[in-house]
Design goal:
The protein is of the alpha+beta class. Helix content is 23%, strand content 39%. Strands 1, 2, 3, 4, 5, 6, 7 and 8 form an eight-stranded mixed sheet that branches.
Length: 433
């Protein structure tokens, strides 16, 4: 860690010597120990090392940034030259600002000394369980890694943050096969610091495997109708991300494209919906501890019981718009509290719709209109889950979707990055053949 601090301070001094009035530097070192499984068999073990140095400078109201991956003096000085050149080539904007002196803070979290023997046995156990319990599944690729990250952040206002963190990651891509037929690929994964539980029982993995086996044989959806979509937690995360990026993001508010730009303090969603951005929560594994502009991260409720509490604002957009800076900008660390209705009861109450495991398509428009392909999905009719369906189009509007919640499940599937329930939304157009 001391070497990283020396590198960071050297880079900061280089920026100041070249005329930067404000500057921030982040220096990181990561170590990744990784197992690979290809075609159902272990194929690789390797250890990767990486350096990362990020420089940001503001000179005469102009901002520039650059990143490099070497720490030698020549590289640091060259990076400082290029960072200042980038700033001088940009347009002046007096709203660039780093956070005030936050003092010195040191963090250590997660698992920084991994048990690689137990980790490997858990991976072996998972591969064997899939072969025995899900015989129609082919593991296309499994990447299991332990990542240790050491980082130092400093800025010209006096802030010094340092952190060492470590966690286990598992990402798996698989498909179903039987009698010469196959399903589409499906990917899932999770992050954890806990090896006491079998991997098959973590996040959504067991359900995903079972669903993909059922998706070897699919049927088309006939006709076009307005119905209910029931989004799995993983799929829900993508939809919420689209919505918050369109309507709550500081850039969209500043540009005037956000439908919520004048809705602060007003109802923008069903009263049962609360969305927190909470990187420091115990439900999130090794979430961020500080922001890129030099503030300590604070968890906050973006939407509380349907009401818009805040926008997702860094200091720059706060200065531009006049709205308060938010506690963090970690849209990937969402938490939605569970509802009170069991998933089985939600399904039983749906006359006709889709249970959706994945979506594909372009980003929604600034108005929130979307047209996407529902993949890894099942038809729901008369309160029962039916056949797996071939790709189906779903259309609607995200702003209306937030308001048209049928129900929120009491079950959740935290994956280390987000902690989300199932949510059923009404009023979506479902188009088959």
């Amino acid at each position: 860690m001391e070497n990283l601090k020396n590198v960071a301070f050297s880079a900061l001094e280089a920026l100041k010597a070249r005329g930067a009035q404000q500057a921030a530097v982040s220096a990181s070192f990561s170590e990744t120990k990784e197992f690979n499984v290809d075609g159902g068999e272990f194929s690789l073990f390797r250890t990767l090392f990486d350096n990362s140095l990020s420089l940001t400078a503001v000179k005469d109201g102009k901002k520039g940034s650059i990143g490099v991956n070497h720490f030698d003096t020549e590289t640091i000085n060259s990076a400082a030259d290029n960072c200042i050149a980038s700033a001088e080539a940009s347009e002046a904007d007096d709203n660039w600002e780093f956070g005030p002196d936050a003092g010195e803070h040191s963090f250590e979290d997660g698992i920084t000394e991994p048990d690689m023997n137990l980790f490997f046995r858990r991976c072996q156990e998972l591969v064997e369980t899939i072969k025995s319990d899900f015989p129609k599944i082919m593991i296309e690729q499994l990447i299991a890694s332990h990542n240790t990250l050491s980082t130092v952040y400093i800025n010209t206002n006096g802030t010094v943050f340092e952190r060492k963190s470590g966690l286990y990651n598992l990402m798996i891509m698989f498909s179903g096969h039987e009698n010469g037929k196959g399903s589409s690929f499906f990917g899932t994964g999770f992050s954890t610091c806990d090896l006491s539980m079998a991997f098959i029982d973590q996040a959504s993995l067991k359900r995903d495997l079972a669903d993909v086996e059922k998706q070897i044989d699919t049927v088309p959806v006939s006709g076009k109708f307005e119905g209910t979509i029931l989004l799995s937690p993983g799929c829900l995360g993508n939809v919420l991300y689209y919505g918050l990026s369109n309507f709550a993001n500081g850039n969209a508010v500043n540009a005037g494209t956000s439908l919520w730009k004048d809705k602060l303090g007003e109802m923008v969603a069903d009263e049962r919906l609360t969305i927190s951005l909470a990187p420091r929560s115990e439900e999130i594994v090794c979430g961020d501890r500080w922001t890129g502009d030099g503030y300590l991260c604070e968890d906050f409720e973006l939407i509380k019981e349907g009401k818009l509490n805040s926008f997702i604002m860094d200091k720059y957009f706060s200065n531009k718009t006049g709205f308060e800076r938010s506690g963090n900008y970690c849209v990937g660390n969402m938490i939605v509290p569970a509802g009170t209705t069991p998933l089985s009861e939600i399904i039983a109450g749906i006359d006709r719709g889709l249970m959706v495991g994945r979506i594909s398509g372009g980003n929604p428009s600034s108005s929130g209109d979307f047209s996407m392909v529902a993949k890894n999905s099942f038809i729901i009719e008369n309160g029962k889950i039916g056949d797996a369906v071939s790709e189906v189009m779903i259309n609607g509007n995200l702003a209306e979707l937030f308001k048209n919640i049928r129900d929120i499940s009491k079950e959740k599937e935290p994956d280390g990055s987000c902690s989300l329930p199932w949510i059923a939304f009404d009023g979506v157009t479902i188009s088959g053949k």
